[in-house]
Amino acid sequence: MREKIAIFWFRRDLRLDDNSALAAALKSGLPVLPVFIFDPNILEKLKLKDDRRITFIYKTLTHLAETLKNRGGTLRIFHGRPADVYARLFDEYDIAAVFCNEDYEPYARDRDTAITKLCQTRGAEFIALKDHVIFAPHEVLKDDGTPYNVFTPYSRRWLERFEHSLPAYVPTLPAGRFAGAAQNAGYPTLGDLGFTENSFEIPQIGVADALIENYAATRDIPGIRGTSRLGLHLRFGTISIRALALRARALSAKFLAELIWREFYQMIIWYYPQTTKEAFRAQYRKLRWPGSETDFKKWAAAETGYPLVDAGIRELVETGFMHNRVRMVVASFLTKHLLCDWRWGEHFFAQHLLDFELASNVGGWQWSAGIGVDAAPYFRIFNPAEQQKRYDAEGEYVKRWLASDDDFFGTPQREPMIDHRFARERCLRFFMGATSGK
Fold first, then answer.
1. pLDDT by residue (tens digit) across 335-363?
2. Do 287 and 428 share a domain, yes or no?
């Protein structure tokens, strides 16, 4: 008779420390088999065959596998649709429970519903726990039990709860044992997945306390290292949100506020999953964006003639990162100056951002387009030239990413593709017409 085991399913929680579902699995008394699934439903949407994120995940899994091996465990890595992989696992093992951490995105919810039903038909439990947020979407609500639609009151309630029940950070795994894996259980290669390795520089997981302390003063200056660049690690769970939030609480209210924004958007996507495809504000859902594909392609090719915008696009394409202040200017330019559909930009960012997270990306783009959860919608229109003067006065950021471009630093300079004053007035007319029903 086969021994009953528990599966621990790694997803967006690629670490051993302070991992809620992994700890629960080990405490269950069952031997634990960790697994990871490269899901074609996700991989097939990626256009870049040297996608940095796949390299990052693969290298992280390799490290996890070695660490687990030293603890007597085996990480099994699969490439296949989750339902097919779990059907295979149930045939191979006597599984009593599947443990994983919650994921609030629409596809993840549908996927987990399907695996829950499969577990039920096989007599196993499906146990999902909170891990990549401090508070799950249902934990920070208005007094009447409905979700917040504005960040500031959400943030106040979030902080009240946080101070009332500070989370614990648990750096060590609890006692427990791991299950042995089947013989000849090899890993798929990057080539098997349809990708090639990208030898980019992975941002360090550690963040200096001094950086967090000075975050409010340095976060808007793209020419210096004033942000943590931990978005990648938060996205894939290689760092604990509890550890980071506790450090932020001690050092920087502004840094903590950015973590709250992240959870606010997770809450929005949970209660309003349709916002991944349409505007949060009902009056903008039937907007017909007049922007052209030609203008979009110029924007995506860093050919707008506005140095700060073009530098941001180049930084993104070359590194997978874009400074947050610059992200706002770049997104505003596409939607407000060029009147291009925000979904075009959201998709472009999704293809290139190392720290791409659906909820935050959608939320940020709708914020920039003036159609999302925001008290100051369409009439906030960034002036790219003024933003550059204010935040990159010496041109350190622009020169770094456009230094090879004679059009910017030779003669003649490239003309902006659209005049700011004209674009601003046109944008206001467009949105006022949309809100008036004309």
1. 999 999 999 999 999 999 999 999 999 99
2. yes
Task: Give the domain-ending residue among 82, 107, 130.
Answer: 130
What is the CATH number for 390?
Answer: 1.10.579.10
Closest CA to 132 of 276, 220, 21: 21
175 within domain boundaries: no
Q: What is the CATH number of the domain that holds 90?
A: 3.40.50.620
Do 111 and 144 lie in one domain? The reply is no
Query: 390-412, pLDDT tens digit by residue?
Result: 999 999 999 999 987 655 544 34
Flag whether 84 is in a domain: yes
Rounded to a whole number of angstroms, the distance between the first and last alpha carbons of the chain is 72
Distance in angstroms (rounded) separating the CA atoms of residues 244 and 17? 13
CA dist., res. 221 & res. 306, Å (int):
17
Question: Each residue of 216-259: pLDDT tens digit?
Answer: 999 999 999 888 889 999 999 999 999 999 999 999 999 999 99
Please report which helix (H) or strand (E) contains residue 305, including its range: none
Residue 99: phi and psi, rounded to 5, are: -105, 140
* Burial (0-12, 13-18, 19+ Cβ within 10 Å), 17: middle
